[in-house]
Design a protein that fits this description.
By secondary structure, the chain is of the alpha+beta class. The chain has 4 domains: 1-64, no CATH class; 66-292, no CATH class; 295-339; 355-423, no CATH class. It has 14 helices and 17 strands. It has helices at residues 21-32, 66-81, 87-106, 115-118, 150-166, 193-198, 203-215, 221-224, 279-282, 294-354, 366-377, 381-395, 400-409, 415-423, and strands at residues 3-6, 12-14, 36-37, 45-50, 54-59, 111-114, 128-132, 135-142, 170-176, 182-183, 188-191, 237-246, 249-258, 266-270, 275-278, 285-286, 288-289. A hairpin with a 4-residue loop joins strand 10 and strand 11. Helix 11 packs parallel to helix 13. Residues 1-12 and 356-361 have low confidence and may be disordered. Residues 25-66 form the Competence protein CoiA-like N-terminal domain. InterPro entries: CoiA-like_N. This is Competence protein CoiA family protein. Keywords: Coiled coil.
Amino acid sequence: MREALHVIDNELVKLPYSATDDEVNNFKKLAKKEIYQCPYCQARLIVKHGEERGLYFSHQHSEACEESRMVDKAEKKYTKQIERESKLHKVLIDIILDELEIKSKVNKEMFVNVGYKAKTDWKEYPDIYVKIPKKELAVSIITNVSPSDDSKLAQQIKKRHEYFLDKGVEPIWFIEKKEQAIEKDKSSIILWDAELSIALKTREDNIWDKLISNEVADEKFFDYFNYPSSFIERVDVRSLYYIYNNDEKVVIKVQRFLKDRVLKPLRAFLVNEGYELPFAEALAVEDGFKLSNPEIESEQRKAFQEKIKQKKESFAEQLRYQEEMRKLRLEQEEEERKRKAEEQDLILKELLEQRKGDKINTELNYNELKRLLKERIGLTQKEQMELWTRHMPKIGINNSRVVWELVIENNCTSFNELRPILENK
């Protein structure tokens, strides 16, 4: 066993994993004076110390009671369950456990213990088990997520989450802050499978649902935020709780998002920038853990609505600007087309002037006609072939000038406009 009840004040005593020789000897002296006893069978406990297990309690002659053996067996299963976690995992558990134990001393109706000790017969264990009036909570922490184990971890989390629910226990998940990845320019958060699996649905999320539902009816809603929406079948705001050390104190960051993609990359729409909660406030017990600040939530919803208003105005202004630029571009293109047409007419006049004295041939040759038609009406290779094989034999192979004059007289801007004129010639 690793823990025991102090016989004087009935408080749970925790031995440090490592200790100096003097500290080890002192703990052993206390044990000899029968100050420690098993919390299950009340038998006297001794203190042992070894390289593998560190400092720990043991029954005399290692004859553990049945309850203790069940705890040891559960501890081994739990150790295997968390073997993928980082060293920070244990640190965070101890911090949360200490905070909850302090609260349980004030709230006598609150029971707190490590998960595998509270529920030795379970197949899955939370890191911490909490019982309050009318509710049981399973607190778990996720660290050390990597691409190689993300999908497998997500499946394990889903299985564990459903198991807790089947046991009538509400799962509460925290995740290491370093896993958070945000695209600010797209108002989005990119999630691990594991993160999406542990996202919770709280009372505050339901309030956000109502607000977002009124806004997403606008089909341009996500365009305002430059968010690349996938297919949001229904509004479903979820929350994640990131845990980390900030300025030498542990805080929880509350992050809410609108669930979107269920295929990688798992992108979701950020409904707010998130906010930090002091650790003690986040774990305040109401009907479960508080996990939010209603005043901040109200302020952020108001800020969100104001942001939408500003985004709409900015988006409308951008559309007006784009339309003005489009009209200007079309005007410039039309002016350029007219200029080229005038240049082509001038070229033709100059060419005919140069050939006035040529008694043998005063007509355009076909190559010159092709060049002029390409510049004037954008003649394509396919249209050129049609002109040569279908229309020129009827007009006359050497009558290129006739074709050009028809273009000028009818102010043709495309071969489609010229074609019926040629067919009626």
